[in-house]
Amino acid sequence: MSTTNPILLMRVFLGEQELQHLPTTRSKVILGRDPYSDVYLEDPRISRVHASVDWQDESNKYVLTDISANGTCVNGHHVKKIALSHGDMIELGRFRVLVELHDGTTENALEGGAPPEWDADIERTLRNG
User: Could you give the strand order of the β-sheet that contains 39-40, starting from the edge strand earlier in sequence?
Assistant: First the structure.
């Protein structure tokens, strides 16, 4: 039985300001300081190829793998490899990347932003981060 990966929406924040959002169904997304990265993050503490997010068919999950010198945190914990869930916050250098997983189209993923039940928690995370 074939499964399709959900839309991965990565919302990049610097402080409270959202700098970019990337909706994708690609099976691999690179985060890093290299201008050719899928998610470009300009910060000397971020490696040129800092982390990858890969769709894993066998687990039906997006998995983040840290491949950097300075490390990556998810929800405040240093990680090397972790399955991502809706609402996870990835921290790289001075940036935070909010992970949203959506079924449907990329247009639907961009409509209305995060579900209302998250707003207070996400806002608190961004303010305190």
Answer: 39-40, 28-32, 51-56, 61-66, 81-83
CA distance 95 to 90: 8
Cα distances (angstroms) measured from residue 61 to each of 14, 58, 93, 116:
26, 8, 25, 23
- What's the number of CA atoms in the CB half-sphere (13 Å) around residue 49? 8
Give 123's contacts (C-beta < 8 A, 6+ positions apart).
Answer: none
**For 57-84, what is each residue's pLDDT tens digit?**
888 899 999 999 999 999 999 999 999 9
What sign for the dihedral angle of Cα 86, 87, 91, 96?
Answer: positive
Three-point CA angle 46, 97, 55, nearest 5°: 95
Distance, in Å, from the CA atom of 103 to the CA atom of 108, rounded to the nearest integer, reads 8
CA 68 to chain centroid = 16
- How many CA atoms are closer than 13 Å to the CA of 76, on its beta-carbon side? 4
